[in-house]
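Forum > Structural Biology > Help requests

Title: Can anyone predict the 3D structure of GNAT family N-acetyltransferase?

Hi all, first post here. I have the sequence for GNAT family N-acetyltransferase but no way to get a structure on my laptop. I'd be grateful if someone could post the structure tokens.
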Amino acid sequence: MLAEGYVVRPLRLEDAAALAAAYQRNREHLAPWDPVRPESFYSVDGQRAAIASQLEQVEQLRGAAWVLAHGDDVVGRVNLSNIVLGVLRSGSVGYWVDAGHLRRGLALAAVEHACDGARALGLHRVEAGTLLHNAASQAVLLRAGFVHYGTARRFLFIGGAWQDHHLYERILHDDPL
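Reply #1:
Sure, ran it for you. Structure tokens for GNAT family N-acetyltransferase below:
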């Protein structure tokens, strides 16, 4: 359940300016967890291009994308990526919350929203990875019913280097396809 005044809603192309502002505002906050980004990423045009690409993935059922909003401000994101259907029926969740809106249960609500969205898409499982020292994100995933199932060495290129990640999974259901 979201704190009062917050909503999770589908990503829209019209979010480019609000997202650019959010990424600029949270640049330092997100830097330890993000890949190195080009300067253009933080601009309205850069966000418009990123959103268009992500919405194309949504249209092709290879992803799902939402923003966490508080009034007109974007204060977080949650996405499903790498969606695979067929016999796997899986996707990966990723999320972040604005530094000025932490400790309100927003990350947990966003992850739960993504899991509900995954279930609606017919997915069987959702996976997530965290940097080894990201205890806050690990706690969110555990509270959301995810289980730690391993560690992947040099898994993602974050902060300019290949970084190890703890891997988590949540089985959504065991219904037949």
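Helices lie at 16-25, 27-30, 44-59, 106-120, 135-143. The domain at 6-171 is CATH 3.40.630.30 (Aminopeptidase).
Shout if anything looks off.
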